[in-house]
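Bit of a strange request maybe. I'm writing a small parser for structure token strings and I need a real example to test against, not something I typed by hand. Could someone generate the tokens for this chain?
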Amino acid sequence: MIPTDADPAAPLDAQASGLTASDLPVDGPDLAAFIAGKLCHDFISPSGAIVSGLDLMRDPTAQDMRDDALALIEQSARKMVALVHFARVAFGAATTSERFTARELHDLVAGMTDGGRAALDWRIADGEFSKPQARALVNLAYLTVGALPMGGNAVVQARAENGRLTIEGVADGARARLKPEAVVGLKGERLTEGLAGQWIQPYWLWLTATQAGGTLDLTVEEGRVVLIAVLPA
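Reply from user aminoacidic:
Good idea to test on real output. This should exercise your parser:
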């Protein structure tokens, strides 16, 4: 288990972490640049596919591929919309909503993970979540599914007790793993080598949990990855 610097036994409130910008390995313009880079990377694939589909539809020598092009455009447009909705909650201010239902958050994560090799097993039946809780939940769920590149079962659940909200993601699969950059981010450390795109979202999850006055723990075993975030309820 890899604990954050915060004491899990300490009271959980918005000021519990006591972190300032100078305490963080990455903050301000650097943090914004990393997140912007990730979003651009995520958006380029479906947007490029839409352009390719339109090019095919305009090509007079490829009219026999018109149906395929239209299917590509539709699939990519849906992916783009899913990315935008997910990013607004996972990284942004998420419009004027102050609270989110479990169903809304499930749909955001499902929109990002449907069609992949791993199965999302969402075990949060109801309830509402504040912005920091929602941000932590969708990022944790997405990373749990992402820990199963060769397939498996990703269980996401949450429980509130003793003034704390515990969010748990368990990835079970033959090749369950996290890339080294992701482990560095989940520990709240600056990336010194590797790909920033693999680091920023795990770091953002750590930052979200820590600045809310919570903790983030990680356990990696053979065929299993467990992420646990504890935040104020």
